[in-house]
Amino acid sequence: MSKIKKNLLIGILVLIFIFPNHIWAKENKENEDIKESKWRRFEILFSISLPFTSIISYLLVSSIDAAFSKGKMFSVRKKHHSSVLAISIALSSLIAIKGLKESSKPQEMEK
User: In this model, does residue 22 exceed pLDDT 70?
Assistant: First the structure.
């Protein structure tokens, strides 16, 4: 019985990966322009940049803390966790706002 289940599972997975996505998903018209709101664009840019800015802010705060207290480089005290969070949110917000401003500019058509 388990051999039949295994073969059935393999067959279903092969069918899913062989057939193109447009068979399983809703059809997308090529002429249809997809427009997203500014808030959604901000949300996407903010969410994508947050992990990177968190790493950068952690390294920044840990290096400043190590320079002043002559401690370990990659350790942050509990009282500085809010600083790491605030810096990463601020940097991600700035990146998202800059991305919104650049995407709202009219783009030149290439010849």
Answer: no
Q: Exposed/middle/buried for 108, CB within 10 Å: 0-12, 13-18, 19+?
A: exposed
Each domain of the chain, given as residue ranges in start order, spans 37-104
Q: What is the 3-state secondary structure (H, E, C) of the chain?
A: CHHHHHHHHHHHHHHHHHCCHHHHCCCCCCCCCCCCCHHHHHHHHHHHHHHHHHHHHHHHHHHHHHHHHCCCCCCCCHHHHHHHHHHHHHHHHHHHHHHHHHHHCCCCCCC
Look at residue 25 in the predicted model and tell me its pLDDT.
55
Retrieve residue 86's tokens.
């605030």
Other residues' Cβ atoms within 10 Å of the Cβ of residue 58: 19
Task: Pick the more confident residue, 41 or 75.
Answer: 41
What whole-number distance in Å separates Cα of residue 65 and Cα of residue 77? 8
